[in-house]
Amino acid sequence: MSMHANRNLLRIMSAASVLGLLSIGAFAQGPSQGTAQPKPAASAVQLTPYTAPDNSATVGVPAGWKVTKGLNAVIQMSGPQGESISLGNGLFVRNGPFQLGHKLTGTVSLSMPFQATLSQKYSMIWQEAAVEAGQGQPQINIISATPIGIGKSVAECGVFLGSMTGPQGGMKFESRFCSLPLDSAGVFKLFWESASIPDKLAAQERATAEAVMASYHISPASLKLLFQPLTPPMPPPGRAGSSAGESSAMYAARMANQTSTCMDLGVIREEPDWKLPSYCH
Questions:
Q1: CA-CA distance, 118 to 193, in Å (whole number)?
Q2: Mean per-residue pLDDT for 183-187?
């Protein structure tokens, strides 16, 4: 992701509206103890293939929907009745106190404590997006937060389901949200995919949202760039790397490949844990 794209990521978020920030899957219909509601079948939904102009990602677009952005693996679209979906979002964050409305310059856009819980980081993104969009803070009800089964050495990820009330009225949402490890310069990355559907459409639009999510694919080159840390990782102390003769550059490349593979399979494609490579756990 380019520096220009990172600097403008919060504007991208507000363009999709604060109510369309976070992800998709099954929409919450009632209280849950950490488990998502059953997902409707999405195979019958008709989608038109779309490829981002820079060939970074592809997705299927439902009839009547409009793609509003396709660049650097970020694809955003809006439906005819207030629906919105945003895929492939990444944001560099510096480890530090969170100050609402205070943006940093350059590649790193915000500061927030790395040790904050995933739910707290999730809430901070919502709060900042609302300020960026010039809107009041939305009333959010998180019904469940379910961890995604990849190791924290790769990323800490979860699926958040709930409902909210904001400028566009009542919405249902589900969010796939990840916090990647802290690098040696004190910077970490957040990643999320997103959709929101008006309350009155939630039941009938679930299959459409699922079909769009399942159709999203990132090119190999863009995938590695999306999950590349700002500062490349160094080999563990006392050795050149985990393989004999492995240089720092080789180690960084191997870690980037592993992270992108784990995030692609475990988060974007939602493969079950047992199908993931051992280094993803």
A1: 15
A2: 92
